[in-house]
């Protein structure tokens, strides 16, 4: 036993290897560790004073073994580890897809394999870690290093994928983005609809949802922004109350109120702040062309629906700013909004009308009268009360009576006893209560009293006439400036004065409201604008750039102003008759819309100046009769119809002018005593000598292609033989319109089949004379007409061909004659040269 124990060798256990040294850059210390060390510096100070060399030597030593033996053991352990690594092989089987199998002689099939040596990291060197366990610090460092490498690999892989994406992946990404965008759009739409329905169902409980809906107007998607604006428009249009919201003052906020009052205050303040934010968003988006139409539609709808509510001024400014826009849709929306504001004054009490008219006047002034005609034509929708001053007189009389009765009562009450003081105090209290109730009712109702209405009407009228007079003055100044700049004056059309036509129409409508102090200046302006521009009148020469339609409107306005203020004015209108007499010859018809407008204006001028005025001088009436008959020969059927109707009415009222229908030698029967010779191009109708002529134009007009005109001309020619006949009279305007409608629906039929539209023709000709029925023309053979036309044009072609051949013959003969003369001259020259040589 003892021998066995003695012989037993003592096993030497080597200490584990020391952890590898790590660079300070690779050491990662957490923030918690740093904080702990900073807080406990006193306890951790001994670490800096440790002797690491002695500690390492103490740890690596082995008790009872010399240093040489210990070194030999270390070398042996390292040698053994290296041999084990060389012998270690990792066998890897090749995948069946990559290599074909091999069949042995025994019939077994197996796949090839290859050996792969384990790679030894360079950092570990020759150290054998299989026999020595790793410390915690080594494991931590290795784990951190592996994490860093994994992150680097992930970043490199993602970069490679981003740099070289496949077409399929990009297409899938686009489809996913579209799907997500559509889903987001649908969710936002549903959210908007839910919020709007909740607000419409219970506005007081869901008033906070307005702020959520306002957030949709700030979205990046343009469709969502438009939907948000329109949804808020529908909500505000429905929940806005019928009164202006007045926020409580500081003193009112300090007072104690009930819960219902607090709830109502919160509702009104939230609604007002949301409405203000909505208007600010609308005005901000108005500058962007994408949202311009939507913004204008929202603003015009609010002006039409809630003109009484807060921030009305901002809405009116936006509408008036776009009232002269070049976009037809925007301009039409703004004009309709302003017209509805003027016609529905019950919604706002007339205050919005005054503000709108002032803004229009400022807008016209800012743009120097260069706007679309619709921007001033909206003023025609205004309506004024002519009887506002009458109730005031009655009220004044009532006040005077009340004062007298009050004085009497006071004198009587002074004589009464003191016991009657109580009754007097009760009456005063009742009177005060009635006054308070009347004041409250007045503040709530939209109908102002008579004094307020009169004030607003006077302000509106002053702004309207200020705009009209500014347009007239601008027309005069621009015409004079253009005449000075250009020596040769030519008509410039209505483009130079776009606002003149609606201005004159407005003056004609509101002529009875013009102050008498301004009518004299107005008539002078109209006279200068309507002047033709003769050489003798330099001021009229400057106005030559106005169109015929505009000058006719000036004459019409002058007559309307004169008739509406007939009792207070004494103005000679002879100059306007002279202008009408000359403008008839300057009229230029056509098929365009502007020419049709000129025809309507001409018909209105004939009605207002010649038909409505029953007193005419015989010379002047005869001159207009003769010129209108000449005019009927030259222009379209509608204009000719208006002229013939006017001519007929003049002959009916002036019996002596019917002498023009007589076919005497040298003129009518009264021509010898009044005028020697008729002057067709005279400028003054009173000096033209029209009674010395004959209406031979009616004979040609009786053969007019239009049956209505030919029948009317034939009826006028037979007036002298039936002086006591009763005639059916219509105005030139109505005759012009009727014939225009007939021309639009009438198609000339050479076969004579005019019985298809008997009902329509009867309804249109009821207003015209009953003698318009004419025999149907006989049927025409189209083949015969075609043959005659072909022979006619063949003859024309032959004539032209003969003329061409004769011209060529003349040219050839002249060239031959010139050649013969040249030969003769050449021969004579040769003879002369020979004679000179011989000499």
UniProtKB/TrEMBL annotation:
Q: Which domain of life is it from?
A: Eukaryota
Source organism: Hibiscus sabdariffa (roselle)
List where Basic and acidic residues composition bias occurs: 151-162, 390-399
Q: Which residues form a coiled coil?
A: none
| Extent of Basic residues compositional bias | 141-150, 400-409
Return the InterPro entries for the record: ARM-type_fold (IPR016024), CCAAT-binding_factor (IPR005612), Noc3_N (IPR011501), Nucleolar_cplx-assoc_3 (IPR016903)
Q: Which UniProt keywords apply?
A: Coiled coil, Nucleus
What Pfam families does the record tag this protein with?
Answer: CBF, NOC3p
Where is there biased composition of kind Polar residues?
A: 749-769
What sequence ranges are listed for the domain Nucleolar complex-associated protein 3 N-terminal?
188-278
Where does it live in the cell? Nucleus, Nucleolus
Q: Which family does it belong to?
A: Belongs to the CBF/MAK21 family.
The UniProt annotation puts the region (Disordered) at 138-171, 390-426, 749-786
Protein name per UniProt: Nucleolar complex protein 3 homolog
In this chain the CCAAT-binding factor domain maps to 552-713
